[in-house]
Design a protein that fits this description.
Blueprint (H helix, E strand, L loop, with lengths): L3 H11 L8 E3 L1 H7 L2 E6 L9 H10 L3 H6 L1 E4 L3 H13 L3 E5 L5 H9 L3 E4 L4 H15 L2 E2 L6 H17 L5 E5 L4 H11 L6 E7 L4 H6 L22 H10 L2 E5 L1 H13 L11 H8 L1 H4 L3 E6 L6 H14 L3 E9 L4 H11 L3 E8 L9 E9 L3 H12 L3 E4 L1
Parallel strand pairs: 2-10, 3-4, 3-6, 4-5, 7-8, 7-10, 8-9
Antiparallel strand pairs: 1-2, 11-13, 11-14, 12-13
């Protein structure tokens, strides 16, 4: 098993090739969670994610013969761009196999670095098998996204920098996909010279690491905004390190990750993808574990689709009561719409959307049904707006 010394060696090796990203204290998240929270912003890497660290270290260790042959990797996201970028910087041929369903933006960004992108298969497993076949047929070096000692050591440099920049840290909350980042972080924590507790964090629908540690059958699947950690087959090397050095792998619900994305965007002014926000989701889900502790959390990826980000923010606003949708049964006479908009405005809310129905849903030809969506400050304010409307109309919340 590799050690913390390998992480230190990786840090020296990749210095100048990846950004030493800043660590910021988050007053807002600290107040909400009761912990003293420090965020490591690997969203600021050139490709927008921490994966550059492992790729840079792995490629730097290639022999002259391996560099001449080139590399192949399988990924639907951040690892693909990381390998493509650092291969380009070294002048190495890179072949990236991506599943056919990979969003075109990720394909374009990967190809932009000069990589040869091959779309193959409908699953990550099929893409991985094809990548291994290409490695065998063409003599390419397969660069695994997480089950590789050099990749693990490279990812661990994130936690190493975090620990160096905030000497008082006593806890780490690290997202878990295949396990490379949490394994590297645990090694960095072990070599810190002081007690630092490392927690891993998975989304509930893809809790493969937690299931493996518990000796349970791996059962994962379903849609998740944290697609970057939606992994079934975790790495054997990371698993062994996690068994020895990680205190616990926590699981968080999908809603907590959405709340963490919104919290980072609204309060910390940081854009994070689902996987990148999972560490913050752990603080929201398990406040009793982290309260009073000095916690380092990597925000390890920013590559979220704009539409997905907008949807998440609106979904959280609905849950928080800041967006409210109502149905009002109203008399079908001139001026009623104006009355309703005036009452909502007078209550201090902002109308977002209105839909007026006469033919299909109204209870009478003398009545109409109005659907209204409005924005309020918070749930209490929404309740006040609804109460003001209920004094004059039949109101149903949706």
């Amino acid at each position: 098993m590799i050690t913390s010394q390998d992480v230190h060696a990786a840090a020296t090796r990749i210095a100048g090739k990846v950004i030493r990203t800043p660590v910021v204290h988050s007053d807002a998240i600290s107040r909400i969670t009761g912990a003293d929270v420090w965020l490591k912003l690997d969203t600021l890497q050139v490709t927008g994610a921490f994966k550059e660290r492992g790729a840079a270290n792995r490629l730097a260790l290639l022999s002259a013969e391996e560099r001449a042959a080139g590399v192949v990797a399988m990924s639907a996201g951040n690892h693909a761009q990381a390998v493509a970028r650092h291969a380009a910087l070294l002048g190495i041929r890179a072949v990236i196999v991506m599943p056919a369903f990979t969003p075109s933006t990720k394909v374009t960004r990967t190809a932009r670095w000069g990589a040869e992108v091959v779309l193959h298969g409908t699953t990550l497993a099929e893409a991985a098998a094809h990548a291994h076949n290409l490695a065998d047929d063409q003599g390419l070096v397969f660069v695994h996204p997480y089950d590789d000692d050099a990749v693990i050591a490279g990812q661990g440099t994130l936690a190493l920098e975090l620990i160096e920049d905030v000497p008082e840290l006593d806890t780490l909350a690290i997202p878990v996909g295949g396990g490379g980042l949490v394994a590297g972080a645990a090694l960095a924590a072990q070599g810190a010279g002081r007690p630092i507790v490392t927690y891993g964090v998975e989304v509930e629908s893809y809790a493969a690491m937690a299931q493996e540690l518990a000796g349970a059958p791996v059962s994962v699947g379903g849609a998740t905004v944290a697609e970057g950690i939606a992994v079934r087959d975790i790495g054997r090397k990371p698993l062994e390190i996690v068994r020895q050095l990680v205190k616990q792998v926590l699981t968080v619900p999908e809603r907590a990750i959405e709340s963490a994305i919104a919290l980072l965007a609204e309060e910390a002014k940081i854009v994070a993808e689902g996987a990148g926000a999972t560490g913050v989701a752990a603080l929201l889900t398990y406040p009793e574990l982290f309260r009073g502790r000095k916690v380092g959390v990597p925000v390890c990826g920013a590559n979220i689709d704009n539409r997905a980000l907008a949807n998440v923010l609106q979904r959280v606003m609905v849950r928080d009561g800041r967006l409210m949708r109502l149905i009002l049964d109203i008399p079908d006479r001139p001026g009623v719409l104006g009355e309703i908009s005036t009452r909502i405005g007078a209550a201090g809310a902002n109308i977002i959307e209105v839909s007026h129905h006469r033919l299909f849903t109204s209870p009478s030809v003398q009545a109409a049904r109005l659907e209204v969506m409005f924005e309020a400050r918070d749930a209490t304010h929404s309740d006040a707006v609804v109460a003001a409307l209920q004094e004059h109309y039949a109101v149903t919340r949706l």
